[in-house]
Amino acid sequence: MSSFDDDFDDDEFEDEIEDEGSADGTLSVSEFIKAVNRVLTREFRPGVWVQGEVVKWRVVGRNAYCQLVENKNGKSVGTLELSLFNDNLVRVNNKLREHRVAMEDGIKVRVLGKPEVWDAAGKFSLVVTSIDPRFTLGDMQATRDELVKKLKTAGLYDENRNRNFPDLPLRIGVITSVGTAAWHDIHSRFAASGLPFQLKVANVRVQGDVAVPQIVDALWALGARDDIDVIMMVRGGGSKTDLACFDAEAIAVAIAQSPLPVITGLGHEIDVSIADEVAHAHYTTPTACAAALIDHVQAMVDAAESGWQSIARHTGGLLDVAEARLLERAGGIRTMAVGAVERANTRLALVTQQLATRPGAILSGAERNLSVFDARARLLDPVNTMARGWSITRTADGSTLRSTKQAKEGETLVTTVADGTITSTVTRKDAANG
Questions:
Q1: Percent of the chain scored above 70 by pLDDT?
Q2: For residue 289, what is the DSSP state?
Q3: Which domains does the chain have, with CATH numbers?
Q4: 97-140 pLDDT, tens per residue?
Q5: What distances in angstroms separate CA 99 from CA 92, 195, 207, one per listed residue?
Q6: What is the pTM of this model?
Protein backbone atom coordinates (compact mmCIF):
# COMPACT_ATOMS: atom_id res chain seq x y z
CA MET A 1 0.00 0.00 0.00
CA SER A 2 1.16 3.54 -0.71
CA SER A 3 1.52 6.23 1.90
CA PHE A 4 -1.54 7.83 0.36
CA ASP A 5 -3.55 4.70 1.11
CA ASP A 6 -2.16 4.54 4.62
CA ASP A 7 -2.88 8.18 5.41
CA PHE A 8 -6.26 8.49 3.69
CA ASP A 9 -9.09 9.21 6.15
CA ASP A 10 -12.34 7.74 4.83
CA ASP A 11 -14.46 9.62 7.39
CA GLU A 12 -12.90 12.97 6.55
CA PHE A 13 -13.44 12.40 2.80
CA GLU A 14 -17.06 11.45 3.42
CA ASP A 15 -17.57 14.64 5.46
CA GLU A 16 -16.25 16.70 2.51
CA ILE A 17 -18.63 14.94 0.14
CA GLU A 18 -21.60 15.59 2.41
CA ASP A 19 -20.63 19.26 2.67
CA GLU A 20 -20.42 19.58 -1.13
CA GLY A 21 -23.29 17.41 -2.23
CA SER A 22 -27.05 17.47 -2.11
CA ALA A 23 -29.14 16.32 0.81
CA ASP A 24 -28.53 12.69 -0.04
CA GLY A 25 -24.79 13.25 -0.50
CA THR A 26 -24.81 12.86 -4.29
CA LEU A 27 -22.15 14.96 -6.07
CA SER A 28 -22.13 16.43 -9.50
CA VAL A 29 -19.12 15.65 -11.67
CA SER A 30 -17.51 19.02 -11.07
CA GLU A 31 -18.18 18.77 -7.34
CA PHE A 32 -16.54 15.37 -7.19
CA ILE A 33 -13.50 16.59 -9.14
CA LYS A 34 -13.13 19.57 -6.80
CA ALA A 35 -13.35 17.27 -3.78
CA VAL A 36 -10.71 14.96 -5.25
CA ASN A 37 -8.45 17.90 -6.01
CA ARG A 38 -8.80 19.17 -2.44
CA VAL A 39 -7.73 15.77 -1.15
CA LEU A 40 -4.83 15.64 -3.63
CA THR A 41 -3.74 19.15 -2.68
CA ARG A 42 -3.85 18.36 0.99
CA GLU A 43 -2.05 15.05 0.58
CA PHE A 44 0.66 16.41 -1.78
CA ARG A 45 0.63 20.04 -0.59
CA PRO A 46 4.41 20.64 -1.00
CA GLY A 47 4.38 18.74 -4.31
CA VAL A 48 5.75 15.31 -5.23
CA TRP A 49 8.87 14.23 -7.11
CA VAL A 50 8.23 11.70 -9.89
CA GLN A 51 10.75 10.17 -12.31
CA GLY A 52 10.33 8.43 -15.62
CA GLU A 53 10.94 8.65 -19.37
CA VAL A 54 9.41 11.43 -21.45
CA VAL A 55 7.25 10.42 -24.42
CA LYS A 56 4.88 12.30 -26.71
CA TRP A 57 6.40 15.69 -25.84
CA ARG A 58 4.54 18.56 -27.51
CA VAL A 59 4.34 22.32 -27.05
CA VAL A 60 1.04 24.11 -27.56
CA GLY A 61 1.37 27.85 -27.35
CA ARG A 62 2.76 28.75 -23.92
CA ASN A 63 2.02 25.29 -22.50
CA ALA A 64 3.53 21.86 -23.00
CA TYR A 65 2.28 18.32 -22.50
CA CYS A 66 3.77 14.84 -22.44
CA GLN A 67 3.60 11.47 -20.78
CA LEU A 68 5.95 10.12 -18.17
CA VAL A 69 6.31 6.36 -18.45
CA GLU A 70 7.95 3.67 -16.38
CA ASN A 71 9.39 0.67 -18.17
CA LYS A 72 10.52 -2.63 -16.75
CA ASN A 73 12.12 -5.27 -18.91
CA GLY A 74 11.12 -3.30 -21.98
CA LYS A 75 7.48 -3.14 -20.99
CA SER A 76 5.49 -0.14 -19.77
CA VAL A 77 4.21 -0.61 -16.24
CA GLY A 78 2.94 2.92 -15.60
CA THR A 79 1.97 6.10 -17.46
CA LEU A 80 1.39 9.58 -16.07
CA GLU A 81 0.25 12.69 -17.93
CA LEU A 82 2.41 15.80 -17.37
CA SER A 83 1.33 19.39 -17.90
CA LEU A 84 3.62 22.42 -17.92
CA PHE A 85 1.87 25.78 -17.96
CA ASN A 86 3.21 29.26 -18.69
CA ASP A 87 5.83 30.24 -16.12
CA ASN A 88 6.39 26.65 -15.05
CA LEU A 89 7.34 25.72 -18.62
CA VAL A 90 9.73 28.68 -18.77
CA ARG A 91 11.27 27.72 -15.44
CA VAL A 92 11.80 24.10 -16.45
CA ASN A 93 13.30 25.05 -19.82
CA ASN A 94 15.65 27.57 -18.22
CA LYS A 95 16.94 25.01 -15.71
CA LEU A 96 17.57 22.48 -18.42
CA ARG A 97 19.15 25.06 -20.71
CA GLU A 98 21.74 25.87 -18.04
CA HIS A 99 23.00 22.32 -18.50
CA ARG A 100 22.46 22.34 -22.27
CA VAL A 101 19.62 19.83 -22.06
CA ALA A 102 16.15 20.16 -23.53
CA MET A 103 12.89 18.34 -22.99
CA GLU A 104 12.26 15.81 -25.73
CA ASP A 105 11.13 12.25 -26.20
CA GLY A 106 13.40 9.64 -24.75
CA ILE A 107 15.13 11.54 -21.96
CA LYS A 108 14.79 10.51 -18.33
CA VAL A 109 13.58 13.25 -15.97
CA ARG A 110 12.80 13.81 -12.30
CA VAL A 111 10.08 16.44 -11.97
CA LEU A 112 8.35 18.18 -9.12
CA GLY A 113 4.61 18.74 -9.49
CA LYS A 114 1.16 18.73 -8.01
CA PRO A 115 -1.44 16.10 -8.96
CA GLU A 116 -4.64 17.46 -10.36
CA VAL A 117 -7.78 16.32 -12.16
CA TRP A 118 -8.93 18.66 -14.90
CA ASP A 119 -12.44 19.94 -14.37
CA ALA A 120 -13.44 20.09 -18.01
CA ALA A 121 -11.73 16.95 -19.29
CA GLY A 122 -11.79 14.88 -16.12
CA LYS A 123 -8.22 13.88 -16.89
CA PHE A 124 -5.66 13.26 -14.18
CA SER A 125 -2.21 14.79 -14.62
CA LEU A 126 0.80 16.04 -12.73
CA VAL A 127 1.20 19.80 -13.09
CA VAL A 128 4.98 20.21 -13.21
CA THR A 129 6.50 23.16 -11.35
CA SER A 130 10.23 22.29 -11.40
CA ILE A 131 12.79 19.75 -12.60
CA ASP A 132 16.08 18.22 -11.42
CA PRO A 133 18.56 18.52 -14.33
CA ARG A 134 21.23 16.52 -12.48
CA PHE A 135 19.03 13.43 -12.64
CA THR A 136 18.77 13.73 -16.42
CA LEU A 137 22.49 14.35 -16.80
CA GLY A 138 23.32 11.46 -14.53
CA ASP A 139 21.09 9.12 -16.48
CA MET A 140 22.59 10.24 -19.77
CA GLN A 141 26.10 9.72 -18.42
CA ALA A 142 25.21 6.34 -16.99
CA THR A 143 23.79 5.28 -20.35
CA ARG A 144 26.95 6.51 -22.10
CA ASP A 145 29.21 4.72 -19.65
CA GLU A 146 27.30 1.49 -20.15
CA LEU A 147 27.58 1.76 -23.93
CA VAL A 148 31.31 2.56 -23.80
CA LYS A 149 31.87 -0.51 -21.63
CA LYS A 150 29.88 -2.61 -24.09
CA LEU A 151 31.89 -1.32 -27.07
CA LYS A 152 35.20 -1.98 -25.34
CA THR A 153 34.14 -5.50 -24.40
CA ALA A 154 33.22 -6.17 -28.04
CA GLY A 155 36.58 -4.79 -29.25
CA LEU A 156 34.87 -1.97 -31.18
CA TYR A 157 35.95 1.03 -29.12
CA ASP A 158 39.40 1.40 -30.75
CA GLU A 159 38.73 -0.40 -34.04
CA ASN A 160 38.43 2.67 -36.28
CA ARG A 161 41.47 4.28 -34.67
CA ASN A 162 43.51 1.35 -35.97
CA ARG A 163 42.67 2.21 -39.59
CA ASN A 164 45.62 3.60 -41.58
CA PHE A 165 45.13 7.31 -42.18
CA PRO A 166 46.06 8.34 -45.76
CA ASP A 167 48.94 10.73 -46.39
CA LEU A 168 46.87 12.85 -48.78
CA PRO A 169 43.16 12.60 -47.82
CA LEU A 170 41.86 14.76 -50.65
CA ARG A 171 38.71 12.73 -51.41
CA ILE A 172 36.38 13.30 -48.47
CA GLY A 173 33.00 11.75 -47.79
CA VAL A 174 31.03 14.30 -45.73
CA ILE A 175 28.08 13.30 -43.54
CA THR A 176 26.10 16.39 -42.53
CA SER A 177 22.91 18.34 -43.08
CA VAL A 178 23.38 20.35 -46.27
CA GLY A 179 22.27 23.95 -45.95
CA THR A 180 23.29 24.34 -42.32
CA ALA A 181 25.92 26.75 -41.05
CA ALA A 182 28.24 23.80 -40.39
CA TRP A 183 28.07 22.70 -44.04
CA HIS A 184 28.63 26.19 -45.44
CA ASP A 185 31.56 26.74 -43.10
CA ILE A 186 33.50 23.61 -43.98
CA HIS A 187 32.70 23.97 -47.68
CA SER A 188 34.13 27.50 -47.75
CA ARG A 189 37.17 26.37 -45.73
CA PHE A 190 38.06 23.64 -48.20
CA ALA A 191 37.46 25.95 -51.17
CA ALA A 192 39.69 28.67 -49.70
CA SER A 193 42.53 26.24 -48.95
CA GLY A 194 43.70 26.21 -52.56
CA LEU A 195 44.16 22.43 -52.32
CA PRO A 196 42.38 20.01 -54.70
CA PHE A 197 39.87 18.59 -52.21
CA GLN A 198 36.91 16.60 -53.57
CA LEU A 199 33.80 16.50 -51.34
CA LYS A 200 31.19 13.77 -51.71
CA VAL A 201 28.27 14.67 -49.45
CA ALA A 202 25.66 12.46 -47.77
CA ASN A 203 22.83 14.81 -46.79
CA VAL A 204 21.23 13.52 -43.56
CA ARG A 205 19.20 14.71 -40.60
CA VAL A 206 21.43 15.32 -37.59
CA GLN A 207 18.79 15.21 -34.85
CA GLY A 208 15.39 13.67 -34.30
CA ASP A 209 13.97 10.21 -34.81
CA VAL A 210 15.21 9.68 -38.37
CA ALA A 211 18.74 10.94 -37.71
CA VAL A 212 20.22 7.67 -36.44
CA PRO A 213 19.14 5.39 -39.35
CA GLN A 214 20.08 8.03 -41.93
CA ILE A 215 23.55 8.53 -40.45
CA VAL A 216 24.14 4.78 -40.17
CA ASP A 217 23.13 4.26 -43.82
CA ALA A 218 25.45 7.09 -44.89
CA LEU A 219 28.39 5.60 -42.98
CA TRP A 220 28.00 2.21 -44.64
CA ALA A 221 27.38 3.70 -48.11
CA LEU A 222 30.43 5.98 -48.04
CA GLY A 223 32.60 3.30 -46.48
CA ALA A 224 31.87 0.95 -49.39
CA ARG A 225 33.11 3.40 -52.04
CA ASP A 226 36.59 3.19 -53.56
CA ASP A 227 36.82 6.88 -54.48
CA ILE A 228 36.92 8.19 -50.90
CA ASP A 229 39.95 8.48 -48.61
CA VAL A 230 38.31 9.49 -45.33
CA ILE A 231 34.82 10.07 -43.90
CA MET A 232 34.07 13.34 -42.11
CA MET A 233 30.95 13.65 -39.94
CA VAL A 234 30.03 17.15 -38.73
CA ARG A 235 27.20 18.97 -37.00
CA GLY A 236 26.91 22.45 -35.52
CA GLY A 237 26.21 23.25 -31.89
CA GLY A 238 23.07 22.41 -29.98
CA SER A 239 21.84 21.10 -26.68
CA LYS A 240 22.93 17.76 -25.29
CA THR A 241 19.59 16.35 -26.27
CA ASP A 242 19.98 17.76 -29.81
CA LEU A 243 23.26 15.86 -30.02
CA ALA A 244 21.90 12.75 -28.33
CA CYS A 245 21.63 10.81 -31.58
CA PHE A 246 25.45 10.72 -31.76
CA ASP A 247 25.41 8.64 -28.57
CA ALA A 248 23.41 5.93 -30.33
CA GLU A 249 24.90 2.45 -30.34
CA ALA A 250 24.06 1.90 -34.02
CA ILE A 251 26.13 4.93 -35.07
CA ALA A 252 29.01 3.92 -32.81
CA VAL A 253 29.11 0.42 -34.31
CA ALA A 254 28.94 1.76 -37.89
CA ILE A 255 31.86 4.11 -37.21
CA ALA A 256 33.90 1.41 -35.53
CA GLN A 257 33.43 -1.06 -38.39
CA SER A 258 33.79 1.43 -41.24
CA PRO A 259 36.64 0.34 -43.57
CA LEU A 260 37.63 4.00 -43.86
CA PRO A 261 38.91 6.23 -41.06
CA VAL A 262 36.12 8.44 -39.68
CA ILE A 263 36.79 11.87 -38.18
CA THR A 264 34.16 13.96 -36.39
CA GLY A 265 33.42 17.57 -35.52
CA LEU A 266 30.18 17.56 -33.55
CA GLY A 267 28.66 20.37 -31.52
CA HIS A 268 30.56 22.71 -29.22
CA GLU A 269 34.03 22.53 -27.75
CA ILE A 270 32.76 20.94 -24.52
CA ASP A 271 30.75 18.21 -26.27
CA VAL A 272 32.16 14.70 -26.58
CA SER A 273 29.75 12.09 -27.89
CA ILE A 274 30.11 8.34 -28.21
CA ALA A 275 30.62 8.91 -31.94
CA ASP A 276 33.58 11.15 -31.08
CA GLU A 277 35.04 8.55 -28.76
CA VAL A 278 35.04 5.70 -31.29
CA ALA A 279 36.09 7.82 -34.30
CA HIS A 280 39.63 7.73 -35.67
CA ALA A 281 39.96 11.33 -34.45
CA HIS A 282 37.52 13.96 -33.21
CA TYR A 283 37.67 17.73 -33.17
CA THR A 284 35.82 20.34 -31.14
CA THR A 285 33.79 21.86 -34.00
CA PRO A 286 33.11 21.33 -37.72
CA THR A 287 35.51 24.19 -38.46
CA ALA A 288 38.27 22.56 -36.44
CA CYS A 289 37.63 19.26 -38.22
CA ALA A 290 38.01 20.84 -41.66
CA ALA A 291 41.08 22.80 -40.52
CA ALA A 292 42.73 19.59 -39.30
CA LEU A 293 42.36 17.93 -42.72
CA ILE A 294 43.61 21.02 -44.51
CA ASP A 295 46.62 21.27 -42.19
CA HIS A 296 47.37 17.57 -42.66
CA VAL A 297 47.41 17.81 -46.45
CA GLN A 298 49.31 21.11 -46.42
CA ALA A 299 51.95 19.60 -44.14
CA MET A 300 52.43 16.74 -46.61
CA VAL A 301 52.69 19.19 -49.51
CA ASP A 302 55.20 21.31 -47.60
CA ALA A 303 57.23 18.21 -46.72
CA ALA A 304 57.28 17.14 -50.37
CA GLU A 305 58.35 20.58 -51.51
CA SER A 306 61.02 20.68 -48.83
CA GLY A 307 62.23 17.30 -49.98
CA TRP A 308 62.48 18.46 -53.57
CA GLN A 309 64.32 21.59 -52.48
CA SER A 310 66.74 19.46 -50.49
CA ILE A 311 67.28 17.22 -53.52
CA ALA A 312 67.77 20.29 -55.71
CA ARG A 313 70.31 21.73 -53.28
CA HIS A 314 72.17 18.43 -53.05
CA THR A 315 72.13 17.99 -56.81
CA GLY A 316 73.30 21.56 -57.29
CA GLY A 317 76.17 20.92 -54.92
CA LEU A 318 77.17 17.79 -56.83
CA LEU A 319 77.02 19.70 -60.11
CA ASP A 320 79.19 22.47 -58.66
CA VAL A 321 81.78 19.91 -57.51
CA ALA A 322 81.67 18.17 -60.88
CA GLU A 323 82.01 21.49 -62.69
CA ALA A 324 84.99 22.45 -60.55
CA ARG A 325 86.65 19.10 -61.23
CA LEU A 326 85.93 19.44 -64.93
CA LEU A 327 87.40 22.91 -65.01
CA GLU A 328 90.45 21.67 -63.11
CA ARG A 329 90.93 18.82 -65.54
CA ALA A 330 90.35 21.10 -68.52
CA GLY A 331 92.96 23.48 -67.13
CA GLY A 332 95.45 20.62 -66.78
CA ILE A 333 94.72 19.40 -70.30
CA ARG A 334 95.14 22.93 -71.64
CA THR A 335 98.46 23.32 -69.87
CA MET A 336 99.65 19.96 -71.25
CA ALA A 337 98.45 20.82 -74.75
CA VAL A 338 100.11 24.21 -74.69
CA GLY A 339 103.36 22.60 -73.48
CA ALA A 340 103.21 19.97 -76.21
CA VAL A 341 102.53 22.57 -78.89
CA GLU A 342 105.39 24.72 -77.62
CA ARG A 343 107.77 21.75 -77.68
CA ALA A 344 106.62 20.85 -81.19
CA ASN A 345 107.11 24.45 -82.28
CA THR A 346 110.63 24.37 -80.81
CA ARG A 347 111.52 21.17 -82.66
CA LEU A 348 110.04 22.58 -85.86
CA ALA A 349 112.05 25.76 -85.45
CA LEU A 350 115.25 23.75 -84.98
CA VAL A 351 114.52 21.66 -88.06
CA THR A 352 113.71 24.78 -90.04
CA GLN A 353 116.98 26.39 -88.89
CA GLN A 354 118.89 23.29 -89.84
CA LEU A 355 117.29 23.29 -93.26
CA ALA A 356 118.08 26.96 -93.69
CA THR A 357 121.76 26.71 -92.62
CA ARG A 358 122.84 23.38 -94.16
CA PRO A 359 121.35 23.14 -97.68
CA GLY A 360 124.76 23.45 -99.40
CA ALA A 361 126.27 20.61 -97.41
CA ILE A 362 123.30 18.46 -98.03
CA LEU A 363 123.35 19.19 -101.78
CA SER A 364 127.12 18.61 -102.00
CA GLY A 365 126.83 15.26 -100.40
CA ALA A 366 123.95 14.38 -102.67
CA GLU A 367 126.02 15.39 -105.72
CA ARG A 368 128.97 13.27 -104.59
CA ASN A 369 126.73 10.27 -104.07
CA LEU A 370 125.19 10.85 -107.47
CA SER A 371 128.62 10.93 -109.17
CA VAL A 372 129.56 7.66 -107.54
CA PHE A 373 126.33 6.10 -108.61
CA ASP A 374 126.82 7.38 -112.16
CA ALA A 375 130.34 5.96 -112.39
CA ARG A 376 129.16 2.63 -111.19
CA ALA A 377 126.35 2.67 -113.70
CA ARG A 378 128.76 3.45 -116.55
CA LEU A 379 131.06 0.62 -115.53
CA LEU A 380 128.13 -1.75 -115.59
CA ASP A 381 126.81 -0.55 -118.95
CA PRO A 382 127.19 -3.52 -121.52
CA VAL A 383 128.35 -1.11 -124.24
CA ASN A 384 131.32 -0.06 -122.14
CA THR A 385 132.01 -3.68 -121.23
CA MET A 386 131.98 -4.70 -124.88
CA ALA A 387 134.30 -1.84 -125.72
CA ARG A 388 136.83 -3.47 -123.47
CA GLY A 389 136.62 -6.71 -125.60
CA TRP A 390 133.62 -8.47 -124.17
CA SER A 391 130.84 -9.87 -126.47
CA ILE A 392 127.43 -11.58 -126.15
CA THR A 393 126.49 -14.68 -128.21
CA ARG A 394 122.89 -15.71 -128.73
CA THR A 395 121.23 -18.65 -130.40
CA ALA A 396 118.80 -18.29 -133.27
CA ASP A 397 115.90 -18.06 -130.86
CA GLY A 398 117.59 -15.18 -128.95
CA SER A 399 118.72 -17.15 -125.91
CA THR A 400 122.07 -16.02 -124.46
CA LEU A 401 124.73 -18.65 -124.88
CA ARG A 402 126.49 -19.19 -121.57
CA SER A 403 127.88 -22.76 -122.09
CA THR A 404 129.18 -24.96 -124.89
CA LYS A 405 126.53 -27.44 -123.90
CA GLN A 406 123.88 -25.02 -125.19
CA ALA A 407 125.38 -24.92 -128.67
CA LYS A 408 124.43 -27.52 -131.22
CA GLU A 409 126.59 -28.43 -134.27
CA GLY A 410 125.24 -26.79 -137.41
CA GLU A 411 123.29 -24.24 -135.36
CA THR A 412 123.51 -20.56 -136.39
CA LEU A 413 124.77 -18.18 -133.67
CA VAL A 414 124.74 -14.37 -133.51
CA THR A 415 127.58 -12.63 -131.61
CA THR A 416 127.18 -9.01 -130.53
CA VAL A 417 130.40 -6.93 -130.20
CA ALA A 418 130.90 -3.25 -129.44
CA ASP A 419 130.38 -2.08 -133.01
CA GLY A 420 127.97 -4.72 -134.45
CA THR A 421 127.05 -8.40 -134.78
CA ILE A 422 128.74 -11.50 -136.28
CA THR A 423 126.75 -14.53 -137.58
CA SER A 424 128.47 -17.94 -137.47
CA THR A 425 127.70 -21.66 -137.76
CA VAL A 426 128.76 -24.20 -135.10
CA THR A 427 131.05 -26.85 -136.65
CA ARG A 428 132.74 -28.07 -133.46
CA LYS A 429 132.40 -27.73 -129.63
CA ASP A 430 135.46 -27.89 -127.35
CA ALA A 431 134.76 -27.86 -123.60
CA ALA A 432 137.28 -26.22 -121.30
CA ASN A 433 139.39 -28.53 -119.13
CA GLY A 434 138.79 -28.70 -115.50
A1: 87
A2: H
A3: 3-144 (2.40.50.140), 154-299 (3.40.50.2300), 382-425 (no CATH)
A4: 888 888 988 899 999 999 999 877 789 999 999 999 999 988 88
A5: 12, 40, 18
A6: 0.59
